[in-house]
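step=encode ok
step=design start
structure_in=
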């Protein structure tokens, strides 16, 4: 990539897209073609084609997606399938059609079979049944990987796919119905501390294991891979370490400084029992994460308390 290249980040206001934008700006890139979702609805084929015809970006980071936590995935199943398929079909096709040099597609660790051997190796894709709570999202993301591969093999398009583990960081979603576990627990513990509530309710048993990556590390990996990796298939991006949801809750409780109890709502689903990425392929390319979990949670929490103490939206 050259500093004068034109770059399109789809979803530049989201947690992932905004982190990629910060990373590229820090590296000295200035030539961006950006549109908010109000300006360009990526689900609409003709709007997307017109945007690419007009802008013809050199590099495309496809970080726009309909995303959410376990309850959102399980509730809005139609939207998670339709919106994601539309967005990725339109962007990948138009990027190829209007001559982009390279595209990076972002997915998720939920593409793997629910009971795949751990840690999850890239070759486990499509070897078993998916976790039911996020099957629509996973099917869309698997279709995106296959679309990148098909455009590469039939048209020679440099489209790469990157599958991050569970993410957190600035610009996360704190809505308790649609968020992921980490921002939800930060909010719950913070509010309980302020109100003096005797306990905080977390969903499920607390026994599922999850891996968490700071979104600034993901953005760094995306920039690295856009420059140094150009192959079919996809790469896992994570830290290679996981912990139980209960241990995550205890870590967040400590960071927030809440001293009350934790209780469990076991009417809520646990989801996949474990989702630990095997990151040996990524490490062999020379990339490694740099932000450890507790440090990352602390920085997110401190920024949050400094910038918006009374509002979560
Ligand atoms: O982060 P999360 O919503 O998504 O939930 P997944 C992870 C675990 O945390 C589950 C538990 O076992 C939840 O039951 N949990 C405990 C909570 N308390 C809470 C809470 O207050 N809020 C939430 N949200 N969870 C998603 C997939 O799965 O992960 C997506 O549905 C995507 O497709 C994403 O892959 C990264 O890790 O289970």
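sequence_out=
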């Amino acid at each position: 990539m050259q500093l004068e290249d034109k770059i399109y980040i789809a979803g530049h206001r989201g947690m992932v897209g905004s982190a990629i934008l910060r990373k590229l700006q820090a590296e000295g890139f200035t030539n961006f073609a950006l549109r908010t979702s109000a300006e360009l609805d990526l689900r609409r084929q003709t709007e997307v084609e017109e945007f690419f015809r007009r802008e013809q970006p050199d590099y495309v980071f496809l970080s726009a997606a309909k995303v959410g936590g376990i309850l959102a995935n399980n509730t809005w199943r139609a939207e998670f399938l339709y919106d994601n398929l539309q967005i990725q079909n339109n962007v990948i096709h138009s990027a190829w059609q209007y001559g982009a040099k390279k595209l990076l597609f972002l997915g998720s660790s939920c593409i793997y079979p629910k009971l795949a051997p751990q840690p999850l190796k890239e070759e486990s894709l499509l070897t078993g049944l998916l976790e039911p709570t996020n099957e629509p999202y996973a099917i869309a993301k698997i279709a995106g990987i296959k679309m990148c591969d098909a455009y590469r093999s039939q048209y020679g398009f440099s489209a790469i796919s990157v599958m991050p583990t569970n993410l957190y960081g600035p610009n996360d979603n704190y809505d308790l119905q649609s968020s992921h576990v980490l921002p939800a627990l930060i909010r719950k513990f913070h509010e309980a501390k302020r109100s003096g509530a005797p306990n905080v309710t977390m969903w499920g048993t607390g026994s599922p294991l999850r891996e968490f990556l700071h979104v600034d590390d993901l953005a760094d990996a995306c920039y690295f891979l856009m420059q140094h990796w150009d192959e079919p298939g996809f790469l896992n991006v994570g830290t290679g370490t996981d912990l139980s949801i209960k241990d995550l809750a205890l870590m967040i409780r400590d960071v927030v400084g809440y001293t009350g109890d934790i209780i469990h709502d076991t009417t809520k689903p646990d989801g996949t029992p474990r989702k630990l990425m095997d990151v040996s392929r990524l490490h062999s390319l020379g990339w490694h994460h740099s932000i450890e979990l507790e440090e990352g949670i602390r920085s997110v929490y401190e920024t949050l308390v400094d910038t918006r103490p009374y509002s979560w939206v």
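step=design ok
step=annotate ok -> The chain has a mean pLDDT of 96.
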